[in-house]
Amino acid sequence: MKGSGSRPQRVAEEPCVPARRRLSVLVTAQRPSRQQRQGRYVPESMKHPARMLPAIAAHVITDYTGPGELVLDPMCGIGTTLVEAIHLGRDAAGMEYETDFAHLTLRNLRHAQAQGATGTARLVCGDARNIATVFAELRGKVALVLTSPPYGSHTHGHVRSGRDNGGGKIEKTNHRYSTDPGNLAHRGLDELLDGFGRILAGCTQLLQPFGVVAVTVRPIRVKGELIDLPGRVTETAERAGLVLTDRLVALLCGLRDGGLVNRASFFQMLETRRARDKGIPACATAHEDLLLFQRTTDLNTDRE
What we know:
CATH superfamily: Vaccinia Virus protein VP39
Strand content: 15-25%
Order of helices and strands: HEHHEHEHEHEEEHEEEHEEEHEH
Strand order of the largest sheet: 1-11-14-8-5-2-3-4
Mean pLDDT: 82
């Protein structure tokens, strides 16, 4: 499988991008999320409703930056991007809207430093739609922006079923980022994407020449309807002054003995069953799209 975009030749020559051949399918879920975090993150990290797999972050950071370069996550959650960056000898910066998760990020960063992580990190609690102003001193210094848009309550969270709670009703927990209506995860899809576009536009101002924006995103089902969220994110990024240069696959399932090991969440399986009951040939998502962008100004300069 090949990436769908054509990466500009100049990018391969930049020192921040290793010359080794990149794969178009990343094997990033041989171990479940909980096992990937065990011992590397504080246990409370599992409370976040939408955690990027550490293996995905590590792959992207390794492939698109070099030691000592700066990685930015404008919606850093519990700090996965930042933690993996400093473990790999990169520096990191992040913003997080929710105070509780910002505190978790700080704890995870301190835990990483106690384990010997050599990179440095900075964190601001605030609205990432203002990131270009908040991190104005980083303008032109960011080698990689790595993030994921919020999905809202449709996909994530924890479940206790009847067999777990003595035959009671299904209990859904940790499926919302907070009760704050200002959080983009509480907005409708159009408003969410508009806010995400403002965040991407701000991040673009902080990129160094030929810097990369990487977004992990998957299709979602809302009330049974399949939403092409990767496509919508691509359109949003293009309006923010970015151009798609590649589209890779980051597996959310394991590979074993020639087959797939399903790691789909309860909610994904529930939506899939509901769709099939309606005669829709749905499948549970087994990968994230890894969308890679660059600034159009950089690409135009490169062609001159």
